[in-house]
Write a structure and sequence with these properties.
This protein has 369 residues and is of the alpha/beta class. It contains 14 helices and 12 strands. The strands form 2 sheets. The protein has a 6-stranded parallel β-sheet, sandwiched between helices. Helix 3 links the parallel strand 1 and strand 2.
């Protein structure tokens, strides 16, 4: 069951079940929903944040502004083990409760124990969190009304989710509905233990590549391997060390890429926990990355970066901050993803229309020769 929900975006059958199975349930529950006003006094707030790493990082700044607005309130954030590592990087005043969707009834029971005055559901389209909200026993619930997703009927209040603004502004609009004016950006903090572990590697004067996108049809977010090899030779030729980062499943691909680069100053840092990867990013001269959670982490660390976007629109999902260059294809259909699964029929690989020369020119703006 747990894998069912976490594979929703990437599996057309499961999305079909989620849509045509859960929408009728939400519609039925909505018939029994009496809309309530927000409590005058807010002493406890629940937050449902089941998103992937990148979305979770983007959401955190507005959510931390909730804690600033309501300093006396007890705030509990419900997350999963898939995004739990994010919260170690961002100082917060939340109690983080890890829940598993393997047992929905137990998760509902855990949320109900909070007896929250307000429950904020940060999910943009998945219906299970709307169902959790309905059964939460909170005095007031709020979530997104996302076009054509039909999940908003069970909330006391809902906020329009827009595909015309950056996602952080959608989260800001969500918390504004409970009186929070958010302007903060995500800012990550690395602990001393991670810094000490990374110091033992004795990395110095280095640039980081993160070539590995995640999510549904991640292969269409990849930049061609031969371009990474060409860019690596350019970086190494400037005298920098090259470190390639990746997750646990990226080891084989990283070793293949390193074999083609074939240089003693090119090495891997793959399969480590998020905090340790952040400690590597923190000291990097530059990160070159496709659109993925590591891009948002680097921006939250104020690390200079060059981000390569294809299916994703940087105006919707680009890095937050002023130390980034964003490149998009100069041909082909691109920038069409909104919620992460809206790939056109007969979609072509648009990432090949970002040339290595274009990236080298962007890199040159950050690196000294």
């Amino acid at each position: 069951m747990r894998q069912f929900f976490f594979n929703l975006r990437g599996n057309s059958l499961l999305r079909f079940i989620d849509r045509y199975g859960f929408i009728p349930i939400i519609g039925l529950l909505g018939l029994f929903k009496s809309k309530r006003d927000i409590p005058q006094k807010i002493e406890s707030i629940g937050i449902i944040l089941l998103a992937a790493i990148g979305d979770s990082i983007v959401a955190l700044a507005p959510l931390m502004d909730v804690a600033k607005k309501y300093p006396q309130a007890k705030i509990t954030l419900f997350a999963t083990k898939e995004n739990a590592g994010v919260f170690e990087l961002f100082p917060h005043d939340f109690t983080v409760e890890i829940v598993s969707l393997k047992n929905i009834f137990r998760t509902i029971s855990i949320i109900r124990k909070g007896c929250f005055d307000v429950l904020v559901d940060c999910s943009q389209w998945v219906r299970i969190s709307a169902i959790l909200s309905f059964f939460s026993a909170a005095r007031f619930t709020i979530g997104f009304n996302t076009a054509k997703q039909y999940r908003h009927f069970v909330y006391d209040d809902c906020v329009a989710h827009s595909n015309a603004i950056h996602e952080i502004d959608n989260y800001r609009n969500l918390v504004k509905a409970i009186g929070v004016d958010s302007i903060s950006l995500p800012r990550a903090v690395i602990n001393d233990e991670a810094r000490q572990k990374i110091a033992a590697f004795k990395f110095s004067n280095y640039v980081v590549f993160h070539p590995w996108p995640s999510g549904y049809k991640g292969e269409l977010k990849r930049w061609p391997e031969e371009n990474w090899v060409e860019l690596a030779r350019y970086i190494l030729g400037l005298g920098y060390t090259l470190i390639i980062t990746g997750g646990r499943g990226d080891g084989a691909g990283t070793q293949e890429l390193l074999a083609k680069i074939n240089h003693e100053r090119a090495m891997a840092f793959v399969g480590h926990i998020l905090m340790e990867t952040a400690a590597v990013l923190e000291k990097a001269k530059l990160l070159i990355v496709v659109n993925t959670g590591i891009m948002h982490l680097a921006a939250a660390l104020n690390v200079p970066l060059v981000a390569l976007h294809g299916p994703t629109n940087p105006k919707r999902w680009g890095p937050l901050g002023d130390k980034s260059a964003m490149l998009v294809p100069n041909s082909g259909q691109h920038g069409y993803l909104n919620l992460g699964f809206e790939y056109p029929r007969n979609v072509v690989d648009c990432m090949r229309y970002i040339s290595a020369v274009e990236v080298e020119e962007a890199v040159a703006r950050f690196l000294t020769h």
